[in-house]
Amino acid sequence: MSQAYSPNILGFLCNWCCYTAADSAGVGRYQYPPNLRVIRIMCTGRLDPSFPLEGLAAGADAVFVGGCHPGECHYQDGNYHALVSAALVHEALARLGVSRDRFLIEWASAAEGPNFVKIITRFTEQAAKLGPLGSSEGLDPLVLRTQLNLVAEAARGRKLRTGLLNASKEMMKVGDFKRETIADLVHDKCDKTLTELMGEFAP
Amino acid sequence: MHAPVSNPSALRTIGSVLVVGGGVAGVQAALDLTELGFKVYLVEKSGAIGGVMARLDKTFPTNDCSLCILAPKLVEAGRDPNIAILTKSELIALTGEPGSFTAKIRKQPRYIDEEICTGCGQCTMYCLKQIGDDYNENLAITNAAHIDYAQAVPTSYHIDAKACLKLNYDTCGLCAVACQAGAIRFDQQEEIVDIPVGAVVLAPGFGRVSEEVLGRYGWGRFADVLSAFEHERLMCASGPTGGEIVRPSDEKHPRKIAFLQCIGSRDENCGNNYCSSVCCMYAIKQATLAREHDPNCEITLFYMDIRTHGKGFDAARERAVAEGNFRVIYARPPKVEDVFDGGLLLTWHTEDGQHQYEKFDLVVLSQGLEAPDDAEQLGRAAGVELNRYLFAQTGNDAPLATSRPGVYVIGAFQGPKDIPDSVTQAGGAAALCSGQLAAGRGTEMTRAEFPAERDISGEEPRIGVFVCHCGINIAGVVDVRAVRDYARELPGVVYATDNLYSCSQDTQRHLTEIIKKHNLNRIVVSACTPRTHEPLFQATLREAGLNRALFEMANIRDQCSWVHMHEPQKATAKAKDLVRMAVAKAAHLVALPEQRLPVTPAALVIGGGLAGLTAALAIAEQGFATTLVEQGGTLGGRALLLTADRFGDDPRKAMQTLINRVTRHPRITVRTKATVASISGYVGNFTTTIAGETGSEVVHHGVAVIATGGMAYEPQQYLYPDSDRVMTQLELEKRLAAGHPLGAKMKQVVIIQCVGSRGEDLAYCSRVCCGQALKNVLRLKALAPHLAITVLYRDMRAYGFLEDDYRKARELGVIFTRYAADNPPRVRAGRGKASPVKVTVFDPILGQEVEREADLLVLSVGIVPEDPSLLARMLKVPVTAEKFYLEAHVKLRPVDLAVDGVYVCGLAHGPKTMDETIAQAQAAAGRACQPLAKGSISPEPIVSHVDPDLCIGCGACESFCPYKAIKIDKEAKPRKAQTLTASCKGCGVCAARCPTMAIDMGRFTLEGIRAQIEAFGKGV
Fold it and tell me: How far is A104 from chain B (nearest CA, A)?
């Protein structure tokens, strides 16, 4: 890997917390690596599970999603639903043989400019260490991108989305918002569909 | 009184209001008033609005980030064309009559033209004169040319006249050279302006306990003794240490922190006998955050009484103390000493008289609140009376009215209080102004008029890109011209240019011309952040005849040039990427129709007690028809059980006046022995069926106020209700009001506090019982001075001016004995039916159990809300575990419920006193009249919409929507989801979870975001 490698990072930031934190980092002139490109969304709850996958397929080496701290969502619980979408992304990456560290969902409140900077700096360093998507994993980048596009399409499909909405329903019912619990829920609800789908990808 | 203020000899009623003070109370009052149709002059002494709340790191009890929840309100106030913010200004005289006052304002110069300043900060960078940073409690340094804080409104810098070298010595002047916008005005002079207003709201906030008082505890002498305000700044990520709590003496993390309470409060020595009401809770907050900053530090809190009487406060405190493993000591260390080997020594006496001492690394003084420094001056200027502590004098039944009709007071100047109570009062004062000035509603308002929108639906995208230099803020790092040239080549772009300041007035005019000249139909501005500037550009679009949704911003300043200052090439590359992504999204933007939904100009008030009556009257006074529903046969509710207030007046008289006023009011329809059978609809358009004795009737209304009240807890302990000698406070009130309340042989009265409250049957503190007990103790003492009275309590929560009653009771010889929750008093009957009951309690001062023979045992029982289950389900509003209605936001929306158009007040919200209930009911009335006064509601068009061809009617969206803004139309076959545009807030959870992708969001469409992602990929 050449010294000059600089990862391409795509970010989805919620308007009320993380996007504001990014702005306030600017007001405070905190410096961080210039790798992130941000798409503003009103709430991380808007994050379609296909977006991060599509981002990776489009050329991102890593994707970041930034929202409000748990319990502080401007819309009450959108960030919990984002965790459900995120769990699917992680699950898909694992099955594709891609490091889960290429996708991060984290929180920074509107006042936490410095915290946002820390998160992005660390994530950029981590992505740089991982190297370019695909080739670093020993996968053919072009094949991997095709596969990512197919999973993204599946994430827009009824089967996976039904699994996710059931996971979200159960999460809200039980009220346990721990990442591991949500990951297990998503695994339970989407395993069959993903296995069917990923089966086609078996190298 | 509730008496509406009439505007006597005024020739006309002026539809504008002066608000003095730009803290959270004043800003909220201003926002509420403009929503109600009144022009506001917001006068602020300092250079920016925001007040103390802007300086706080977090707010209790939820530890929400303070500025994050405040800043949007400040921006809103700053943008509102009907709020004129006058900074560095003060009220110096008020003449005239209610409805037609003239306010004389003295305005000090800022020396920087607010209209021209772009907030770039060049002046500060070049300013040679350093001064203490007041915002950071002088723990940091700023310059004479400065902005108070990064998010300050107005977003304009100003110059400290006392420090500026140019103004004082006619040297320097570098800022004028550095300012590319040319905003520096050294020749500005003080101005005196006369402003005609119909009413005045005083919200000057609070002053600080003097440094001399802090000095008694070592502040100023020992570096590691901090005031709580200083500690707050240390905790804050934007504070002087970047959010690290370090000892000023050695910049190390303190291992042992002590919080000393009641500094300058409950202290006759400094003239402040009152309780500052907020310090107990803010100390808990600060302790919790200190613990978060350093999980190993030990925290000790020294309390006299723990006064965490607010809604949910006790629970928050108990959790914090348990989780943080805080040590809570009931003692008041009299001083702080330093010792030879470092550290700060505290000495104290425990309740059992033992002498203790210990060293700490850091001591935080919980500094109390005082009347503002210029209270007397303001009182004279406004012509209002002050109380002995120099707070504004108000009455029990008109808590927001000053001694001068047409002048109202809110926030800490009315008495020490926290943020939600201040915000509540702001809403209440807005309602009172709105009632008083109803005739002038809308007369002073500026309404933005826009030309008709051009229909662009058939056009190919013709995108215009405007790249901003922001002076040198962007151009100093990013090659703006290269970005502009790059933009010209992007698909769909027909025009691209660069501007020095895109936001300046002349650029806005230029933009309008270019849009028309080049027939542009989508606009991308590549500049700062949409969070602050989008509305400005959107207004320009509308002036050019474009729908405001046809706009997108690329944030190349806050998220690019400012954060990559040393990497100009990479920053330029990033700016190009961001512009390309914005242009890609813009190509997919479509015009979104501005929704205007009509509002039924009527209100429904549920509950005919003090809260409901007050709310109904305040709504009707503002000019709207009101239906009041009461389940009982008469009006007045349980407030009629109170027979005296703490000033000795009989509140039943005021209640009767209120009832008469309501029943005779031409706009109020009263329905007693009636209940709400069903409610449906949404804000502006509710339909309610009221079931009465003679059948049911259907009422249409735009808003609803819940004032269903509460009742006394029914004790089952301490021999109640079996012994004649045991009674509740309310029963005592009744006896005190009767002719001969006390038997001739009565020698001793014992009162037990917290019966059933704070962890027995009711988990919460009922807030009013301590004050009520003190009031009745004083009434008993007035009737029988030799009567022995003992009050058994856990914490005497005599907050605010109630502390005066507490002191007076002790001076009259009333004995107060603290009991622990795990060792409550025991009561047994005497031998005969007529003999006194025996009360045994452990006395911590004596260190042993004592027994008292009580001729009368009075139980201070808590407040239980009326069961909310049915109504809450009908309205789909949440309630707390304790069955109180849960407000939309505990700090900033204290009377709104999560469902728009539904409000709460009184005991249904939580236990509170009569004056607090009145203020809250008036606030609910003010908030409720906002949609009514507007006559229509126009939700932001970023709402969800459902494609019925794709929808399978599964109902997932309905179950996830936090606002009940999307629902399955059960009538339709097959079932389809439908957006309730009025309720939708545009979060997009429904879209992300829809199994068939049948839902899309306005402006944040699937196609738009996918285009952004795709465009991102093109740069890779």
Answer: 17
- Report the C-alpha gap between B923 and B28 in whole angstroms: 11
Tell me the pLDDT of chain B averaged across its residues.
93
CA distance A42 to B400: 38
pLDDT digits (tens, 9 = 90+) for B624-665: 999 999 999 999 999 999 999 999 899 999 999 999 999 999
A158 in Cβ contact with B995 (< 8 Å): yes
How far apart CA A104 and CA A123 sit, in angstroms, is 8
Q: Which of B150, B577, B985 sits opposite A37 (nearest CB)?
A: B577
Laid out side by side, the sheet with B199-202 consists of: B83-86, B39-43, B16-20, B199-202, B407-409
Which of B990, B987, B1017, B1016 lies closest to B1004, judged by CA? B987
Which residue type sits at A143? V
Cβ(B110)–Cβ(B156) below 8 Å: yes
A34 chain-B contacts, CB cut-off 8 A: 560, 563-564, 567, 570-571, 573-574
Chain B residue numbers with beta carbons less than 8 Å from the beta carbon of A114 are: 237, 242-243
Coil, helix or strand for B391?
coil
B54: its two tokens = 């802007």
Start-end of H helices in B236-374: 279-293, 313-324
How deeply is B43 buried, as exposed, middle or buried, from its count of CB atoms within 10 A (0-12, 13-18, 19+)? buried
Contact between residue B409 and residue B238 where contact means Cβ atoms under 8 Å apart: no
ipTM of the complex: 0.97
Cis-peptide, bond into residue B721, ω within 30° of zero: yes
What is the distance between the alpha carbons of residues B789 and B772, in angstroms, rounded to a whole number?
Answer: 15
Mean pLDDT of B675-680: 93
Q: In terms of Cα–Cα distance, which of B809, B625, B607 is closest to B711?
A: B607
Closest by CA position to B399, among listed B384, B391, B410, B388 = B410
- A111 contacts B993? CB cut-off 8 A: no
Distance CA(B167)–CA(B171), nearest Å, equals 8
- pTM over 0.90? The answer is no
Per the prediction, chain A carries an average pLDDT of 92
Q: Are B755 and B859 in contact (CB under 8 A)?
A: yes
Nearest 5°: phi and psi at B52?
A: -70, -35
On the 0-12 / 13-18 / 19+ scale of CB atoms within 10 A, B853 is: middle
CA distances from B67 to A199, B24, B388, B559 (A): 50, 11, 33, 20
Interchain pair A37, B573: CB under 8 A:
no
Q: Phi and psi for B197 in degrees, rounded to 5?
A: -140, 155
